[in-house]
Each structure stands twice: as C-alpha cells, then as structure tokens.
Amino acid sequence: MRQNLHFQNARSSSSGLGISNGYSGMVGRADTTSMIEAKYPAVRFKQQLTAYVEKIYGTMRDSLKREISAILTLCIQAPRAGRVRASRGSLKSIHSSALSRQASSVHWQNIVKCLNHTLETMNNNYVPPMIIRKTFSQVFAFMNVQLFNSLLLRRECCSFSNGEFLKAGLQELEQWCSRTTEEYAGTSWDELQHIRQAVGFLVLHQKSHKTLEEITDELCPVLSISQIYRIGTMFWDDKYGAQGLSQEVSNWKHENNDDR
Fold it and tell me: Which of 85, 185, 230, 233 has the most CB within a 10 Å radius?
C-alpha cells in the first residue's frame, strides 16, 4: 500500500506539470486511483469463484460416493452359492458357482458404470482434468476404507473364496483405471493399497509357510501388524482347508503385543 501511495504522489506531481499519462488522456492521479479501487473487486471475485468451484466439486464427489456406497454393500461378500468346497466338484455345484460369480460381477460392473457416467458428465461440462483426478482419487480412497474395514470387522468376509471374489472385483477397477488413463484416474488405483494387499493375503496359498518378515515386507507392507494378525486369525479356507498364519507369527504377536 505504501508503494501504491508513493506511486500516486509521483503521478500527482507530474500532473502539476501538465504531463498526460499517454493512455486515456487523463492526468496520472485519477487513473492511479481507479487502478487501486479495481484491485479489491477482482480479489473478491476470485474468492467467490474459488468457493463456487469447491462447492460444485464437493457436490459431485459426494453424489458419486452415495451411488457407489449403495452398490459396495453387494460387493463386499461373495454370494453364498459361490462359496462351495472344491471337494464338492459335482456338475451341479460347479454350475451354481459359475452362475453366482456371473451375477456378483454385475455389482462391480455397476460401479464401473457409475465411474464412467461421472467421467462423461464432467468431460461434457469441461471440468479441468485436475478436478476430475482429485474426485476419483477421493472416491477410490472411500472404497478402500469401506472394503478394508469390512474385512477387519466381519469374519465371513475373510474366507479364501471371498478373497477370490474381491480380487476379481478389484481387477475390474484396475482395468477401468488403465482405460481411463492417468490424466483422469490419477492415483486412484494406489488409493486401494490396503484392500489390495489384504485380498492378496486372503488368496495366498501356503500362508502358514510365510514368516512375519515376508508378510510385512513383501506381501502387506502398508498394513500394520495388528491388521495382518486380525485378518490372519479370522481367515478360514472354505475351498482347500488350508491354515492361516503360522504358529510362529501368532506367538510373536502374543509375546510382543505390537499395536503398530
């Protein structure tokens, strides 16, 4: 402000000499005052525009979350007909399992349809790619929390066959991110790290042969030991009858009581 006032005084002194500003035909003082007054409406307009964009962005994001949330409840657990043991390999059970997988994949495809519809709507309305990326990244983070918490809270979701069901659904989302490209999907796929690693653990064969270091460093690096232990102890193999965590890993958790 001091600099602006100094500039104004300098122009005032030049007006006393009858020197025009060479632009509007007016002397310097009036033109400078106009410039100072115009500065503040521009700032207010910028603030109002920013608030308006943030409100629209939040509305679009929350609307997509609500749509997907209703479908996610159908994607968390595989249909009961699909959870059959391999030993029951009759033609009837195989046919029933195939039908249930086909029906359950529809729910994941409905999520993809919601994502595509939102992307098309935003593109048709010339929404900047930066806002599109941010929208999808936050929605994928929301899905990650919902799915991962379901594994931690519901033992029936921690079976081998349910892990296969979730893995197939996550592949649908991975393919969507690949088709959409990073320009619009951004870091969406990375936002699913927790559920991806948890599902990878559920469908892993010979879990009982894995050491704690192999699990924490290679298989589930983003999960805490407590989260791994909880999923591992709730795991049940409804397909092959295999064990979950090794006794060594279970004993280590009890001895150290590690809550990381």
Answer: 185
